[in-house]
Task: inverse folding
């Protein structure tokens, strides 16, 4: 009897999966792999049920000889282990980023004469409805909120990108890239004070009020499922901060990052070129504790951002503050720098990790942008935030288009570098 293998990444069995099973049974005995949580999160999306429940779901279907867990999105290990004669999959993997998976399967099977069976992918309204429902569930506050903590526990490094609108949210949600035979995507979204203010044409000085910032979050939440990290600036007055924490938690935001500055906040990337005042350790600890006390779930995170290196107060001050903020209840530490070279970030992370192995470390490599995620992870960083690159890439493109229309008194010259309207429309989901 020949052996047929299929890998399932689903939480719900629908007609498409049953078609694969029916077709596979014509070729031999069927082994189904269930993609592990870590691999599923990296490649696709969060599961809404546990790995054991997903395995049981498949075991409950008749005509399957074995169910195993597949630990990597690429099939290499599983193929080497079970040597299937056939691997069966919907033909949707013939294009797009998932083609890299098919290429990998083809290479592995060709070593011993195994074959791929591509069957027509099942597109129908019932399958779409089920997929949409899973996505809607992932977007619900109680599901979304806890996913940052889970992600930090599972991934060696979590990657967040700045978003400030529904459209940039969609980019963060849907951009998947195949590179060097691996698939990658962003794990989370950063609601930057700088870019949220810039999008409204306002300076980054805590001028855009909370109601307006929440409106931005809401726009993003409407069209995405990934966890959200909110840039809370200084957090404001303690009496106000507790309300902010409550609101964000209720909305399904996963974390707020507050920076230890006081008075009129200026963007950190100005450093000491402008007047910026660091908060006292005692007062900032009080703010963290007040926020932790008010939150209702264990999911929400308050991350303390240390500005000592930005304000040239030295490494010892940064480390002292980190210790104090953790003692006050901070769920993570963000260390910021505006040096081009990452050495002070590495020095802080190395010293902090000697004392504390657990608390997540967060960095924003805007100035020290040559550093790779892998290097940061090697120094104990858990979360990297690309805080403003979408805004900075969009603005010059829009500015050039505006200038060229003025220059040529028509739009033809700019058209070849514009995204076709059809592509914009297909980016946006319709219910
Ligand atoms: C932001 O994105 O608003 C930040 C990061 O706070 S930074 O601009 O580097 O201060
Ligand atoms: Mg900010």
Result:
């Amino acid at each position: 009897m020949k052996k047929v293998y299929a890998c399932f990444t689903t939480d719900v069995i629908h007609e498409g999966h049953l078609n694969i099973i029916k077709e596979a049974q014509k070729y031999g005995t069927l082994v189904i792999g269930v993609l592990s949580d870590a691999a599923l999160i990296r490649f696709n999306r969060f599961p809404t049920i546990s790995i054991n429940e997903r395995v049981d779901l498949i075991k409950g279907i008749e005509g399957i000889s074995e169910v195993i867990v597949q630990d990597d999105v690429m099939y290499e290990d599983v193929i080497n282990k079970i040597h299937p004669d056939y691997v069966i999959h919907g033909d949707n993997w013939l294009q797009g980023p998932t083609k890299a998976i098919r290429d990998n399967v083809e290479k592995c099977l060709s070593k011993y004469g195994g074959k791929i069976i591509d069957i027509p992918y099942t597109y129908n309204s019932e399958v779409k409805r089920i997929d949409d429902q899973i996505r809607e569930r992932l977007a619900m506050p109680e599901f979304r909120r806890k996913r940052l903590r889970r992600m930090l526990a599972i991934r060696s490094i979590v990657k967040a990108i700045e978003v400030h609108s529904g459209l940039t949210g969609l980019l963060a949600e849907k951009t998947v890239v195949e590179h060097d035979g691996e698939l990658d995507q962003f794990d989370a979204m950063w609601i930057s004070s700088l870019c949220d203010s810039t999008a409204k044409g306002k300076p980054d000085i805590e001028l855009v009020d909370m109601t307006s910032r929440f409106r931005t979050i809401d726009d993003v939440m409407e069209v995405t499922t990934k966890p959200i990290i909110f840039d809370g600036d200084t957090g404001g007055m303690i009496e106000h901060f507790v309300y902010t924490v409550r609101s964000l938690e209720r909305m399904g935001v996963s974390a707020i990052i507050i920076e230890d500055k006081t008075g009129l906040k200026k963007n950190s990337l100005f450093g000491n070129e402008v007047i910026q005042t660091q908060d006292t350790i005692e007062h900032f600890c009080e703010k963290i504790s007040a926020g932790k006390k008010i939150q209702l779930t264990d999911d929400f995170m308050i991350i303390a951002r240390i500005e000592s290196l930005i304000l040239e107060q030295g490494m010892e001050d940064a480390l002292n503050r980190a210790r104090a903020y953790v003692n006050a209840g901070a769920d993570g530490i963000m260390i910021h720098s505006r040096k081009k070279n990452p050495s002070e970030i590495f020095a802080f992370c190395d010293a902090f990790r000697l004392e504390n192995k657990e608390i997540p470390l967060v960095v924003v490599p805007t100035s020290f942008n040559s550093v790779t995620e892998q290097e940061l992870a090697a120094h104990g960083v858990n979360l990297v935030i690309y805080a403003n690159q979408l805004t900075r890439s969009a603005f010059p493109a829009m500015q050039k288009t505006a200038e060229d229309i003025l220059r040529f008194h028509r739009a033809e010259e700019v058209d070849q570098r514009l995204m076709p309207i059809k592509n914009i429309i297909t980016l946006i989901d319709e219910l």
About this structure: The chain has three domains: 3-129, 140-387, 393-425. The chain has a mean pLDDT of 94.
